[in-house]
Design goal:
By secondary structure, this protein is of the alpha+beta class. 63% of the residues lie in helices and 12% in strands.
Amino acid sequence: MPWYQLEDANDPRLDELAKQYNLHPLHVEDARSEEESVKVDTSAHYTFAVFKPVRLEPDPAAPAESIPVFSPVDIFAGKDFLITIADSRCSSTQQALERARRDGDDEHPARLLYLILDTIVDLYFPAIDHFDDRIDDLEDVVLASPTPAILQRVFALKRELIDLRRVLVNTRDASLHLQRDPESIIDTEHQPYVRDIYDHVARLLDSVETQRDLLNNTLDIYLSSVANRTNEVMKVLTVLSTIALPVIAISGIYGMNLKGLPFEQSAHGAEYVALLTILCTVLLLYLLRRMKWF
Protein backbone atom coordinates (compact mmCIF):
# COMPACT_ATOMS: atom_id res chain seq x y z
CA MET A 1 0.00 0.00 0.00
CA PRO A 2 1.50 3.39 -0.95
CA TRP A 3 2.05 5.98 1.75
CA TYR A 4 2.43 9.52 0.42
CA GLN A 5 4.08 11.93 2.85
CA LEU A 6 3.77 15.62 2.01
CA GLU A 7 5.23 18.49 4.02
CA ASP A 8 3.04 21.25 2.57
CA ALA A 9 -0.67 21.16 1.77
CA ASN A 10 -0.04 23.55 -1.13
CA ASP A 11 2.17 20.96 -2.81
CA PRO A 12 0.89 20.36 -6.37
CA ARG A 13 1.23 16.64 -5.70
CA LEU A 14 -1.84 16.87 -3.47
CA ASP A 15 -3.94 17.95 -6.47
CA GLU A 16 -2.62 14.97 -8.43
CA LEU A 17 -3.40 12.59 -5.57
CA ALA A 18 -6.86 14.15 -5.19
CA LYS A 19 -7.63 13.25 -8.80
CA GLN A 20 -6.06 9.81 -8.50
CA TYR A 21 -7.95 8.80 -5.34
CA ASN A 22 -11.05 10.95 -5.83
CA LEU A 23 -10.53 13.08 -2.73
CA HIS A 24 -13.36 15.46 -1.94
CA PRO A 25 -12.54 19.12 -2.75
CA LEU A 26 -13.78 20.25 0.67
CA HIS A 27 -11.35 17.90 2.38
CA VAL A 28 -8.50 19.24 0.26
CA GLU A 29 -9.59 22.76 1.17
CA ASP A 30 -9.65 21.86 4.86
CA ALA A 31 -6.16 20.41 4.60
CA ARG A 32 -4.92 23.70 3.17
CA SER A 33 -6.62 25.80 5.84
CA GLU A 34 -4.30 26.83 8.67
CA GLU A 35 -7.22 27.52 11.01
CA GLU A 36 -8.96 24.15 10.63
CA SER A 37 -9.78 22.49 13.94
CA VAL A 38 -9.32 18.84 14.86
CA LYS A 39 -11.90 16.74 13.04
CA VAL A 40 -12.68 13.40 11.43
CA ASP A 41 -14.85 13.04 8.35
CA THR A 42 -15.72 9.84 6.53
CA SER A 43 -16.45 9.50 2.83
CA ALA A 44 -17.38 6.46 0.79
CA HIS A 45 -13.86 5.09 0.33
CA TYR A 46 -11.56 6.93 2.74
CA THR A 47 -11.39 8.72 6.10
CA PHE A 48 -10.16 12.30 6.36
CA ALA A 49 -8.70 13.43 9.70
CA VAL A 50 -7.08 16.56 11.06
CA PHE A 51 -5.06 16.21 14.27
CA LYS A 52 -2.95 18.74 16.14
CA PRO A 53 0.16 17.48 17.92
CA VAL A 54 1.50 19.74 20.66
CA ARG A 55 5.08 20.72 21.32
CA LEU A 56 6.64 23.09 23.84
CA GLU A 57 8.62 26.06 22.57
CA PRO A 58 10.24 29.04 24.34
CA ASP A 59 7.89 31.98 24.79
CA PRO A 60 9.17 34.98 22.74
CA ALA A 61 7.91 37.33 25.46
CA ALA A 62 9.58 35.30 28.24
CA PRO A 63 12.34 32.97 26.96
CA ALA A 64 12.53 31.27 30.35
CA GLU A 65 8.95 30.03 29.89
CA SER A 66 7.69 27.42 27.42
CA ILE A 67 4.35 27.62 25.67
CA PRO A 68 2.37 24.93 23.79
CA VAL A 69 2.38 25.19 20.00
CA PHE A 70 0.09 23.15 17.74
CA SER A 71 0.96 21.96 14.24
CA PRO A 72 -1.77 20.31 12.16
CA VAL A 73 -1.44 16.84 10.68
CA ASP A 74 -3.83 16.07 7.81
CA ILE A 75 -4.49 12.43 6.95
CA PHE A 76 -6.32 10.79 4.08
CA ALA A 77 -6.62 7.11 4.97
CA GLY A 78 -8.14 4.78 2.40
CA LYS A 79 -8.20 1.03 2.15
CA ASP A 80 -5.37 1.02 -0.38
CA PHE A 81 -3.56 4.31 0.26
CA LEU A 82 -2.44 6.72 2.96
CA ILE A 83 -1.67 10.42 2.54
CA THR A 84 -0.20 12.46 5.37
CA ILE A 85 0.50 16.19 5.29
CA ALA A 86 2.67 17.35 8.17
CA ASP A 87 5.34 19.92 8.97
CA SER A 88 8.66 18.13 9.20
CA ARG A 89 9.97 20.77 11.62
CA CYS A 90 7.51 19.70 14.31
CA SER A 91 9.21 17.19 16.61
CA SER A 92 5.90 15.79 17.89
CA THR A 93 4.67 15.16 14.37
CA GLN A 94 7.89 13.40 13.46
CA GLN A 95 7.62 11.14 16.51
CA ALA A 96 4.09 10.15 15.50
CA LEU A 97 5.02 9.40 11.91
CA GLU A 98 8.21 7.55 12.86
CA ARG A 99 6.30 5.31 15.26
CA ALA A 100 3.73 4.55 12.58
CA ARG A 101 6.48 3.64 10.12
CA ARG A 102 8.29 1.53 12.71
CA ASP A 103 5.39 -0.32 14.32
CA GLY A 104 2.72 -0.09 11.66
CA ASP A 105 1.74 -2.31 8.79
CA ASP A 106 1.59 -0.85 5.31
CA GLU A 107 -1.24 -3.24 4.51
CA HIS A 108 -3.42 -1.97 7.37
CA PRO A 109 -4.06 1.79 7.14
CA ALA A 110 -6.31 1.54 10.21
CA ARG A 111 -3.29 0.59 12.33
CA LEU A 112 -1.22 3.41 10.86
CA LEU A 113 -3.96 5.92 11.66
CA TYR A 114 -4.31 4.55 15.18
CA LEU A 115 -0.56 4.73 15.86
CA ILE A 116 -0.37 8.33 14.66
CA LEU A 117 -3.32 9.41 16.82
CA ASP A 118 -2.11 7.43 19.84
CA THR A 119 1.33 9.05 19.72
CA ILE A 120 -0.19 12.51 19.33
CA VAL A 121 -2.40 11.98 22.39
CA ASP A 122 0.46 10.54 24.46
CA LEU A 123 2.52 13.67 23.78
CA TYR A 124 -0.14 15.80 25.47
CA PHE A 125 0.79 14.34 28.87
CA PRO A 126 4.19 16.12 29.08
CA ALA A 127 2.40 19.36 28.20
CA ILE A 128 -0.05 18.77 31.05
CA ASP A 129 2.86 18.13 33.43
CA HIS A 130 4.46 21.37 32.23
CA PHE A 131 1.27 23.27 33.08
CA ASP A 132 1.25 21.67 36.54
CA ASP A 133 4.78 22.93 37.19
CA ARG A 134 3.97 26.44 36.01
CA ILE A 135 0.86 26.63 38.17
CA ASP A 136 2.83 25.42 41.21
CA ASP A 137 5.41 28.15 40.60
CA LEU A 138 2.68 30.77 40.26
CA GLU A 139 1.05 29.68 43.53
CA ASP A 140 4.37 30.17 45.33
CA VAL A 141 5.14 33.53 43.74
CA VAL A 142 1.67 35.02 44.07
CA LEU A 143 1.88 34.72 47.86
CA ALA A 144 5.36 36.19 48.08
CA SER A 145 5.05 39.09 45.62
CA PRO A 146 1.66 39.68 43.99
CA THR A 147 2.79 42.06 41.24
CA PRO A 148 1.06 43.02 37.96
CA ALA A 149 3.60 40.89 36.10
CA ILE A 150 2.35 37.83 37.98
CA LEU A 151 -1.22 38.73 37.02
CA GLN A 152 -0.18 38.83 33.36
CA ARG A 153 1.36 35.37 33.71
CA VAL A 154 -1.87 34.05 35.22
CA PHE A 155 -3.99 35.39 32.36
CA ALA A 156 -1.50 34.13 29.75
CA LEU A 157 -1.63 30.66 31.28
CA LYS A 158 -5.45 30.77 31.31
CA ARG A 159 -5.45 31.51 27.56
CA GLU A 160 -3.05 28.64 26.90
CA LEU A 161 -5.25 26.26 28.88
CA ILE A 162 -8.30 27.40 26.91
CA ASP A 163 -6.50 26.64 23.64
CA LEU A 164 -5.36 23.25 24.94
CA ARG A 165 -8.84 22.37 26.15
CA ARG A 166 -10.37 23.30 22.79
CA VAL A 167 -7.96 20.99 20.95
CA LEU A 168 -8.54 18.16 23.43
CA VAL A 169 -12.32 18.43 23.21
CA ASN A 170 -12.15 18.23 19.41
CA THR A 171 -9.70 15.31 19.65
CA ARG A 172 -12.08 13.49 21.98
CA ASP A 173 -14.96 14.00 19.54
CA ALA A 174 -12.77 12.85 16.66
CA SER A 175 -11.77 9.63 18.43
CA LEU A 176 -15.41 9.01 19.31
CA HIS A 177 -16.34 9.45 15.66
CA LEU A 178 -13.65 6.98 14.59
CA GLN A 179 -14.89 4.23 16.87
CA ARG A 180 -18.62 4.73 16.26
CA ASP A 181 -18.82 5.46 12.55
CA PRO A 182 -19.19 2.10 10.75
CA GLU A 183 -17.85 3.63 7.53
CA SER A 184 -14.59 4.89 9.05
CA ILE A 185 -11.29 3.26 8.21
CA ILE A 186 -11.02 1.92 11.77
CA ASP A 187 -12.10 -1.72 11.66
CA THR A 188 -13.39 -3.92 14.47
CA GLU A 189 -9.89 -5.08 15.36
CA HIS A 190 -8.67 -1.55 16.08
CA GLN A 191 -11.79 -0.12 17.73
CA PRO A 192 -10.65 -1.16 21.25
CA TYR A 193 -7.40 0.74 20.69
CA VAL A 194 -9.30 3.85 19.65
CA ARG A 195 -11.50 3.50 22.75
CA ASP A 196 -8.32 3.48 24.79
CA ILE A 197 -7.28 6.73 23.10
CA TYR A 198 -10.68 8.17 23.97
CA ASP A 199 -10.11 7.28 27.63
CA HIS A 200 -6.70 8.98 27.55
CA VAL A 201 -8.18 12.16 26.10
CA ALA A 202 -10.95 12.13 28.72
CA ARG A 203 -8.29 11.86 31.44
CA LEU A 204 -6.37 14.75 29.88
CA LEU A 205 -9.50 16.87 29.88
CA ASP A 206 -10.05 16.09 33.57
CA SER A 207 -6.51 17.30 34.25
CA VAL A 208 -7.11 20.49 32.29
CA GLU A 209 -10.30 21.21 34.22
CA THR A 210 -8.42 20.67 37.49
CA GLN A 211 -5.68 23.02 36.34
CA ARG A 212 -8.24 25.66 35.40
CA ASP A 213 -9.69 25.43 38.92
CA LEU A 214 -6.21 25.74 40.43
CA LEU A 215 -5.49 28.74 38.24
CA ASN A 216 -8.74 30.39 39.28
CA ASN A 217 -7.76 29.77 42.90
CA THR A 218 -4.39 31.36 42.19
CA LEU A 219 -6.15 34.39 40.75
CA ASP A 220 -8.33 34.61 43.87
CA ILE A 221 -5.21 34.42 46.04
CA TYR A 222 -3.63 37.23 44.03
CA LEU A 223 -6.69 39.45 44.40
CA SER A 224 -6.90 38.70 48.12
CA SER A 225 -3.20 39.46 48.61
CA VAL A 226 -3.51 42.77 46.77
CA ALA A 227 -6.63 43.66 48.77
CA ASN A 228 -4.91 42.79 52.06
CA ARG A 229 -1.88 44.85 51.12
CA THR A 230 -4.13 47.79 50.23
CA ASN A 231 -5.95 47.43 53.54
CA GLU A 232 -2.64 47.51 55.42
CA VAL A 233 -1.59 50.68 53.60
CA MET A 234 -4.93 52.33 54.30
CA LYS A 235 -4.68 51.31 57.95
CA VAL A 236 -1.26 52.94 58.33
CA LEU A 237 -2.44 56.10 56.58
CA THR A 238 -5.55 56.24 58.79
CA VAL A 239 -3.46 55.88 61.97
CA LEU A 240 -1.04 58.59 60.84
CA SER A 241 -3.91 60.91 59.94
CA THR A 242 -5.55 60.31 63.33
CA ILE A 243 -2.30 60.99 65.18
CA ALA A 244 -1.94 64.30 63.33
CA LEU A 245 -5.40 65.51 64.39
CA PRO A 246 -4.37 67.03 67.78
CA VAL A 247 -1.49 68.91 66.15
CA ILE A 248 -3.74 70.23 63.40
CA ALA A 249 -6.55 71.18 65.78
CA ILE A 250 -4.40 72.98 68.35
CA SER A 251 -2.21 74.76 65.80
CA GLY A 252 -5.34 75.82 63.93
CA ILE A 253 -6.93 77.32 67.04
CA TYR A 254 -3.82 79.27 68.07
CA GLY A 255 -3.25 80.35 64.49
CA MET A 256 -6.55 82.32 64.33
CA ASN A 257 -5.20 85.21 66.51
CA LEU A 258 -8.15 85.04 68.91
CA LYS A 259 -8.04 86.90 72.22
CA GLY A 260 -8.28 85.16 75.56
CA LEU A 261 -6.72 81.84 74.59
CA PRO A 262 -4.92 79.91 77.38
CA PHE A 263 -1.24 80.73 77.77
CA GLU A 264 -1.61 83.63 75.32
CA GLN A 265 0.09 86.14 77.61
CA SER A 266 2.51 83.68 79.18
CA ALA A 267 6.22 84.01 78.48
CA HIS A 268 6.36 80.26 78.03
CA GLY A 269 3.13 79.96 76.04
CA ALA A 270 4.76 78.27 73.08
CA GLU A 271 6.27 75.61 75.34
CA TYR A 272 2.95 75.02 77.07
CA VAL A 273 1.10 74.64 73.76
CA ALA A 274 3.77 72.27 72.44
CA LEU A 275 3.53 70.23 75.64
CA LEU A 276 -0.27 70.14 75.33
CA THR A 277 0.05 68.94 71.75
CA ILE A 278 2.45 66.17 72.78
CA LEU A 279 0.19 65.08 75.65
CA CYS A 280 -2.85 64.93 73.37
CA THR A 281 -0.91 62.92 70.80
CA VAL A 282 0.37 60.48 73.42
CA LEU A 283 -3.15 60.08 74.83
CA LEU A 284 -4.51 59.42 71.35
CA LEU A 285 -1.80 56.83 70.69
CA TYR A 286 -2.67 55.14 73.97
CA LEU A 287 -6.36 55.00 73.02
CA LEU A 288 -5.60 53.61 69.55
CA ARG A 289 -3.35 50.99 71.14
CA ARG A 290 -6.10 49.97 73.52
CA MET A 291 -8.46 49.67 70.56
CA LYS A 292 -5.83 47.45 68.84
CA TRP A 293 -5.62 49.58 65.72
CA PHE A 294 -1.91 48.82 65.56
